[in-house]
From TrEMBL:
Principal localisation: membrane
Topology of the protein relative to the lipid bilayer: Multi-pass membrane protein
Ranges for domain TonB-dependent receptor-like beta-barrel: 278-667
Localization per record: Cell outer membrane
Gene3D superfamilies referenced in this protein's UniProt entry, alphabetically: TonB-dependent receptor, beta-barrel domain (2.40.170.20)
SUPFAM superfamilies: Porins (SSF56935)
Protein family membership: Belongs to the TonB-dependent receptor family.
Domain TonB-dependent receptor plug: 55-160
Keyword annotations from UniProtKB, A to Z: Cell outer membrane, Ion transport, Iron, Iron transport, Membrane, Receptor, Signal, TonB box, Transmembrane, Transmembrane beta strand, Transport
Record InterPro entries: Beta-barrel_TonB (IPR000531), Beta-barrel_TonB_sf (IPR036942), Plug_dom (IPR012910), TonB-dep_rcpt-like (IPR039426)
Name of the protein: TonB-dependent receptor
Signal sequence, start to end: 1-26
Amino acid sequence: MFPLRRHPTVVALLVGLALPPLSSHADTRKDGAESFAPHELESVTVTARRGEEQAKEVPFGLSVIDAGTLESKGNADLEAVLRDTAGVNISSSGPYDANVLIRGVGSLNQISQEDGSVVLNVDGVALSARQISLATLDMERVEVLKGPQGTLFGRNSEAGAINVISRGPTDYREGYLRGEYGQDNQYRLEGALSGPLGERLSGRLAVRQSGEDHWVENVNDGDPISKPRSLAFRGSLLWDVGERTSALFIAERQRIQHDASVQVLYPFGDPPGIDMTPGRFDDNQNTVERYSSEVQHDFAGSRLTSTTALTRTDMSLVTGYGRRISEILYGAPMEFMKEDDSDQRVLSQDLNVSSLPGARVFWVAGLYASDSRRNFDSFFETTGNRQDRDYETRAYALYGEATYPLTGRLDWTFGLRHTWDRKTYEADYFSGAWQHDERDLDDDYTTGRTGLSFAVMPDLNLYAMLARGYKSGLFSDYATQVEDSSPTDAAKVNSLEIGFKLEPTHQRYAVNGAVFISRIKDDHLLGYDVATQATSAINADTRSQGAELEGSLSLSQDLALSASVTYIDAEITSDAPGVQGGDVESGNRVPQAARWSGDLVLTYQRELPDFPGLPYPMLKARAGYHHVGARPADPQNHFDLDHYDLVDTRVTLLTGNAEFYVYGDNLLNERYELSGYQLAPGVRTGAMHRGRTIGVGAGYYF
C-alpha cells in the first residue's frame, strides 16, 4: 500500500490468474546511486479452493485482480471490476439487479433475487451476485473462478464464483487517506487505519463515502433524476489466540441511497432523459450488513477453519415507466410505477479441514449449513395491486476436494458435494380481492468435478477438468397471482475445460489459455405480459463454447503490457414458448453473451529527477482499452446491443508518502447500453452507462 520509492505498484491482469505488482529490486552502483534490476513476476497465492495455494497450480480458469490493479484502475465497485474481466458479461438496469454470466453461462432472465448462476463469496461468506454494486473498499484481491464451482461453493455457482478477500489487520501501524473529484460531481473519500491493539490483538478500520449526479436527466426540470450516495465501512479484529490458533472478526455495512434503476426510451437523447415527477427515487436504498467470525487452528498436518456469519440486506426500490413509455404501451401519459421492498437475513456456518499451505497433496473437506429468510413485497401505484411474499431456504451440505499426485508430473483432482435444500413460500396477492398461496420445494443433489493436470516442465502446466453444476428450483419474486407462482425446474450444467498455464520462473512474462464447452439444462427465463402484468417461470436449455487467451509481459524496467481476448459462442438449444415479446426459439443466441471481447493495458513507471520539495518523485501511468462486441439484448434476439470500446487512463505522481493523480474514464464518451428490452413491437428501452468522466485525486500513506 505504500507508494514509496521502493514500493512502486505496476500491475497486470493474467489469463486465468493475475500477476501481483511487478517487483522493484534496488541494486547499489559503485557511485552510490541506485539502479533497478529487471522486473521478475511473482506467483500469486489464492484461496479459490478454500485453502492457500499458488494460482498457477489451480486446475481451472482463474482471474485474480489485486489491490494495486483495483487502485490503478480507480474501480469504485465490484460491477466495474467484473465488467473488465475476461469471459464475464453483466446485464443490469441499476445497482440492485445485476445478472452475471461467465463464459456465456447464466440465467437467461433472473426470476428472483436468489436466481443467480455466480455466487459472490466475501471473506468466506456467501452473498447474492446481485450485490456486486458493493464498493471495492480496502480489498486485497478479487478472484474470479470460471466454470461450475458447486463442489466448494454450492448452489448458484453453475457458471462460476467471485471470491473477494478484504485486507486484514496488521501487527504494525499503517493506513491511508484518499480523496478524488470528477465530472458530474463524482467524489470519493476513503481511508483505512490498521495496527496492533495489544500483545495478541490487532485491528483495521476502513471507511468510504462517495456520490455523484445520475447521468440520466429528468426532462421535466432538467436536473439529474437522482443523486446517488454510498457509505461503506468495515471493521476487523485479529486475535492471535495461540501459536497455532487465530480468530478474525469482521463487521461490515454498505448502504447505497437515491440510486435508480431506469429504462430510457429508444432512441436515447444526449443526455438521455425520462419524464417523471422529480424526486421519485429519493427514497431508494440498498443496505448490506455482514458480521462474521473465522477461527483457524493448525494441527501437525492440517488446518481447521470455522466460519460463522450473519448477513442482512434491506432494499427499497421504486421502478417504472415514464409518461412517454406508458402512453405508447397503455394509451395514457401516466407514470407507471412499482414499489419493491425486500429484507433478508441469512445465518450460515462452514466448518472444514484442509491441508496446510505448501503441502504436496492439496485437500479440503467440510460441512455447511445455512438458513435464509426474506420477503419481497410489491405495490403497483397505478392499479393498486399488491403482492406480499415470504421465502425461507434451509440448506445443508457435505463436500470435499483433493489434488493427488499420481506421478512426479501428473496430478488428479476430484471433488464431490451433496446438498439438501428445503424451500418454503407463502404469499398474499391483491387484485380487487385477496388471494393466499403456500408452497414448498425439496431437493437434494450432487455436484462435483474431476480432472488431470500435467507439468510438461516446471514452468508449464496443462490441465483438463470435467465439472457438474446445479441451480436448484426456486419461486419467482415477480408472481402477481397464485397461478404464476409455480417453481422453476432445477438448472443443471456439465462443463469441460482444457487449458494451460505458463509462468516461467524468474522471467518477465506469463501466458494462460483455455478452451471450454458447457451444456445447460433448464436454465431460467421470466415470462411477463405487459397488458395483464401476469408473469411465469419458464425453463430453456443452452450451450456455450469458446476460448480465452491472456498474457502479461514486462517490456522493460519502466513498461509492462497485459492483454486478453475471449471468444464465446452461446446459444439457446430448446424452444421456450410464452415469454413476453414472443416465443424463444432454439438457435437464438444467449442474451448479453458477446462473441468477442478483449483488453489491452499498458502500465509505465519511472523515477523522476530530484526536484526541490518533492522527495523521491516517481511517475506512474496506466492506459487501458476494453472491447465488448455486439450481443443480443433478449432471448428472442429482437435486436442487438451495439459493441463498445472503452478507453481509460490514470497518471500518478508519487512523492514521499503522497500521491497526486488525474484520471479519465470512458474517454471516447461511449454511451453504451447495460441492458435492453423490447416492450412491444417497435417499443425499445435500454439502461445506459455513464459517458466520459475526468477527475483528480490525492492520497497519503502512513
